[in-house]
Design a protein that fits this description.
- By secondary structure, the protein is α+β, with helices and mostly antiparallel strands.
- Helices cover 51% and strands 20% of the residues.
- Strands 1-2-3-5-4 form a five-stranded antiparallel β-sheet, covered by helices on one side.
- Helix 1 packs antiparallel against helix 3.
- The longest helix has 36 residues.
- The termini are far apart.
- About 5% of the residues have low confidence.
Amino acid sequence: MDSARSPGLASTGKFAADPLAQICGEMAGAFRRKWGRGPANTTAHWAGPNVLVVLLHNGHTDHEKTIRAAGHIQQLLDGRQLLQQILEDELKAIVESATQREVLTILSATRLDPDLSAEIFLLKPAPITQHPPTVQRVDQAQTWARGSRSDAQAIRAEARQARVKRDTLRK
């Protein structure tokens, strides 16, 4: 599976078969425990064989919304960055447990509009047999298939033009 989506409140531990769903639920729970409110929903996506992106949608608290409305944007972003640093070890452990791979580093970002935070995990490369399927591989295959169809269509069009020229010359 290339991506998973989990409501912020669904952290029941029933995700053992799907590591991305497990990551979504456990990360939402970690933010909820440390910040008092977790994201409304969480999505996780493989962005390649060694990069995992977790998006936390609509996770700002009422307090943060009040700070934003008062115009204290930088203080709000600084607080979010501090929270992400405090949670880094826990988030790393969640991903390592679910993927059975070592996390080399985490990049964190927060936006206010839309209300969105991202955690990007760079994982230690796994043996080729353990690489997760990626959307990129599917896209490459589809692009190749479209290209093959386009080549065949171009060859047929050239053949038609040659027949038309031949028939015109015969008349």
